[in-house]
Design goal:
Elements (H helix, E strand, L loop, with lengths): L5 H15 L3 E5 L5 H9 L4 E3 L4 H13 L3 E7 H7 L1 H10 L5 E5 L17 H5 L5 E5 L3 H11 L5 E6 L18 E5 L4 E5 L3 H14 L5 E5 L1 E2 L3 H8 L4 E9 L4 H11 L6 E6 L12 H8 L3 H12 L1
Parallel strand pairs: 1-2, 1-3, 3-4, 4-6, 5-6, 8-9, 8-11, 11-12
Antiparallel strand pairs: 5-10, 7-9
Length: 310
């Protein structure tokens, strides 16, 4: 454990980059963080707070980007995406103005704030538009690495960060260029997960291993990903699973099915995620309780995988 949130790891790295490059600007929408306090103090002229005005924040950042600035737009994830969606469509998908859109609290990151603050549709929505890549971060090491990459891109990247400290999956210096990583190798079976659910997948496969069932884990952290590389990784598999903290229609599992269909690869894929049958969640009591409600907690995932494998 690095004992740092993805958010703070990301902004700490942006701070170091911004000290060396005065063209790096943060446009925050009334959002703070301990890691941003020193940015606000030391680099005040590179820090713009537009208040609770997500659409205006996108407009301000787009104008700055058109003048050569490298802009990071930051807010709670559902608001920086869904509330500002028409602006993202015009400025980023249509005009291809390069921005880094940073949302904190993807999935059920704001588990105590109800369905208005849950974000379980963003992968489907953001991947439906061109000129936008999605970075679904799985640990603090990846968060810092993606900050470095963000200032080099010629298109918009959307970064979904978790609020809470999570176990480290990667080590500093790991390569994050492919868009996916085999974090637990296998030969015949893989569960492909994204974001916070990568750790759930690792925990589930440990349980299965105790019963003599070998299932590997692939972290699909970027959409679009390196399709040839991913297809090569799963080519020898006879069973695949996908796991996401997201509604199933249009999500990461749907993306995998599209990839395989378009490349004439036929593999059985069991999608594990949030069912429309459950609707939006008004359950409180912590993220684990919400996961249990949607049957994406470790116990439910293990049970569903065993059923499919049988």
């Amino acid at each position: 454990m690095s004992n740092i949130t993805q958010r703070d790891s990301f902004w700490n790295r942006v701070y170091e980059l911004a000290k060396a490059d005065r063209n790096i600007i943060i446009v925050t929408e009334d959002m703070g963080a301990p890691s941003l306090d020193k940015f606000r103090t030391d680099l005040n002229d590179q820090f713009v707070n537009v208040g609770i005005a997500e659409q205006n924040g996108l407009l301000v950042a787009a104008g700055l980007a058109m003048e050569g600035k490298r802009c990071f737009v930051y807010a709670i994830a559902p608001f920086v995406t869904l509330r500002a969606l028409e602006l993202i469509r015009v400025e980023n998908a249509i005009m291809n103005i390069p921005l880094t859109i940073v949302g904190v609290g993807g999935g059920f990151g704001y588990d105590d704030s109800g369905p208005t603050h849950h974000l379980i549709e963003d992968i489907a929505i953001m991947r439906s538009m061109p000129n936008i890549s999605i970075n679904s971060i799985s640990d603090a090491v990846m968060a810092a690495a993606v900050a470095d990459e963000s200032i080099t891109l010629d298109h918009t990247n959307y970064i979904r960060l978790d609020r809470q400290v999570s176990p480290d999956i990667y080590k500093p210096g790991d390569d994050f260029t492919k868009g996916f990583a085999v974090v637990k190798p296998s030969t015949k079976k893989y569960i492909i997960a994204t974001g916070r659910m990568v750790q759930t997948a690792l925990n589930a496969t440990e349980r299965l291993a105790a019963d003599g069932v070998d299932v590997g884990v692939i972290d699909l952290y970027r959409i679009p990903t390196c399709v040839p590389g991913l297809l090569s990784a799963i080519e020898g598999c006879d069973q695949l699973f996908s796991l996401e903290e997201h509604f199933l229609p249009g999500g990461m599992g749907s993306y995998l099915l599209e990839i395989m269909n378009d490349n004439k690869m036929c593999k059985p894929l069991t999608r594990l995620g949030l069912s429309f049958d459950k609707g939006y969640c008004y359950t409180y009591g912590g993220r684990h309780k919400i996961h249990k409600y949607y049957e994406v907690d470790v116990d439910s995932v293990v049970a569903d995988m065993k059923k499919a494998l049988a």
